[in-house]
Amino acid sequence: MNKLTNHVLMVRPYLFKKNEQTASNNYYQSDSSLNLNTLNKLALKEFDEFVKILIKNGIKVTVHQDNQNPETPDSLFPNNWISFHDKHKVIVYPMFAKNRRDERSNHIFDSLKKSGVNMEIIYDLTNYENQNLFLEGTGSMVLDRVNKKLYASLSDRTDKSIILDFSEKMNYKPIIFSSFQTVNNDRLKIYHTNVMMSIGDKFAAIGLNSIDDISERDLVLNELRNDNKEIISLSENQIEHFAGNMLLIKNSIQPVLVMSTSAYDSLSKDQITKLEKYAKIIHTNLETIEKAGGGSARCMLAEIF
Fold first, then answer.
1. What is the pLDDT, as a whole number, of residue 28?
2. Which of 16, 12, 43 is nearest to 107 (CA)?
3. How many distinct structural domains can be found in the chain?
4. What is the pTM of this model?
């Protein structure tokens, strides 16, 4: 059973910049030497080019233009606050950064309705914010929709109790672990699971060495192998280039694997050959967005089912 979509939601930012509220635990973000105006122009150019490439490859894209107020520097990463499920059922999520909570806007629902998506919010998990607990959508959880499994790496933004709540409500098996990156010689938690792994219907690209605990690593590997996924192991350097942040979707002809050019360029010929068995690869330059935003192609796409 193929659970890929050909329709994604993307949010075109009004003013993109480094979000200081998320930088405390997203170590992939960095300061830019560019002035704000130039940074925003470059990010918008990357965004618009990404949309064009998706459409050219047969993907339906609903673009919502973000507003000036309130200020939402990370609005182009909608997959963190909303996820879509069968029959346009929607879940909204509790967000770590206060300014990201403003991204959950009725205007977006209006844009979706205009493109023919009538949604029903089945679960609103945002009350967890009152307890300072967070689960940032398909950033925090990598969903295997076919096998009804979710992979989640615990962090300040990915709380175990909400994972278990989601799993029970949606009938998913939770596979919970911790993953780390090296920052100034310290091993610090990776902020989102979808940075270190991506699941396709027949493959999994994953930074195995980021899972420091051997028993947790074995747990994850066994679950993937039991579902006959080909394991494509990513190095820490490849994860830093957002190779884990890819997404498998489809057009009317074939599966399409979407990633950034920086991710693509970090992959070996052998890894590309393996991935091309399963999908047509498309990539686009997201350098400005990756550097200031600390997220990449997958973070920018909310799949609509």
1. 47
2. 12
3. 1
4. 0.95
| Average pLDDT per consecutive 10 residues, the chain (305 residues; last block may be shorter) | 87 78 53 76 96 98 92 91 93 95 91 90 97 98 97 97 98 98 94 97 97 98 98 97 98 97 98 98 96 92 96
- Nearest partner of 76 among 35, 137, 17, judged by Cα: 17
The CATH number of residue 240's host domain is 3.75.10.10
Does 2 reside within a domain?
A: no
Backbone dihedral region for residue 294 (phi beyond 0: left; psi -120 to 50: alpha; all else: beta): left
- Is-contact 39 92, C-beta < 8 A? no
Angle of CA points 93, 132, 199, to nearest 5°? 40
Distance linking the first and last C-alpha atoms of the chain: 14
Inter-residue contact 71 to 296 (CB < 8 Å): no
